[in-house]
Amino acid sequence: MEAKDLQVFSLASGSSGNAYLVRHQKQALLLDAGLSGKRTLAGLAEISVDPASISGILITHEHNDHIAGAGILSRRFNLPLYMTKGTWVGASRKLGKIEEKNVYLIEANSSFVLGNLEITAIPICHDAREPVNYVFDSGKCRAAVLTDTGSVPSSILKILATCQAMVLEANHDGEMLRTGPYPWPLKQRVGGELGHLSNLQAARVAAWLAINGKIRQIQLGHLSAVNNNPNFALAAVSQFLVSAGLGAELVCRNLQVLPRQRGGPVLQVYEQI
């Protein structure tokens, strides 16, 4: 039997804004707040979450599509912000005035406890000051969000292998990026080691985790509006997983693509009982 334990809701996942709500029992946390305050509140209302019930905002890095609404929400609802020191240095001016008591500096490759969740900050390969993503552990199951990274080192794969579910970046189709309208320097940035995962890179990560880890559910996120489309991303990852012998039925049931600018299907993480 299975019992629902962790939930991850995407409010938006793309270059124009990223925000996720992580819920465990009565606890709720925002992971990034890259939408306007108004859009974030509307997204929370759609999933019937009172913003006053949120206990904090975890920030991955200082790019605007991850922090646009964080300062506003912190001031309005007295929310603490959790981020690395490098991210704070890069984000502080953009966030505006934040009460000192609401700034919590964390370290990459370390864990901390908020409520009933143990949260691990994992370093990522991105062109920001000290970017991280997060793994959430309820004590019964684990989930992760991995976006905004140009590569995934083996040390991070081993951590992700302990998770049952995750949001995984599939930012761009390699050919669309190559032939698309971006100037060459931007193409190099997006497709580089400190950029974003392509569909093929996401497929390789997903296959490795399915073979070597506990992963059972994957949502593809942070799709580019210019260099990707949901059908390409889903097909690329699905076909790779099937070719790796992981089974078409399993892939079809447990692989989804998140919408860029609106809420997506909830990622349910179950406890085995």
Characterization of this structure:
This protein has 273 residues and is an alpha/beta fold. It contains 10 helices and 14 strands. The chain has helices spanning 37-46, 64-67, 70-77, 85-95, 154-160, 174-179, 184-191, 199-212, 230-243, 248-254; strands at 2-14, 17-24, 27-33, 54-58, 81-84, 103-106, 110-114, 117-123, 132-137, 142-146, 165-169, 217-221, 255-257, 267-272. Strands 6-5-4-3-2-1-14 form a 7-stranded mixed sheet. Helix 8 (199-212) runs parallel beside helix 9. It is globular. It starts with a strand and ends with a strand.
List the helices and strands and how they pair.
Elements: E1 2-14, E2 17-24, E3 27-33, H1 37-46, E4 54-58, H2 64-67, H3 70-77, E5 81-84, H4 85-95, E6 103-106, E7 110-114, E8 117-123, E9 132-137, E10 142-146, H5 154-160, E11 165-169, H6 174-179, H7 184-191, H8 199-212, E12 217-221, H9 230-243, H10 248-254, E13 255-257, E14 267-272
Parallel strand pairs: 3-4, 4-5, 5-6, 10-11, 11-12, 12-13
Antiparallel strand pairs: 1-2, 1-14, 2-3, 7-8, 8-9, 9-10
Helix pairs in contact: 8-9
Provide key terms for this protein.
273 residues, alpha/beta, Metallo-beta-lactamase, Chain A, seven-stranded mixed beta sheet, globular
CATH superfamily: Ribonuclease Z/Hydroxyacylglutathione hydrolase-like
Q: Indicate how many domains the architecture comprises.
A: 1
What is the second-level CATH architecture? Answer: 4-Layer Sandwich
User: Could you tell me how far the N terminus lies from the C terminus, measured between alpha carbons in angstroms?
Assistant: 5 Å
Q: Which regions have little confidence, pLDDT < 50, spanning 5+ residues? A: none
Q: What's the number of extended β-strand segments?
A: 14
* CATH topology tier name: Metallo-beta-lactamase, Chain A
Biggest beta sheet attributes: 7 strands, mixed
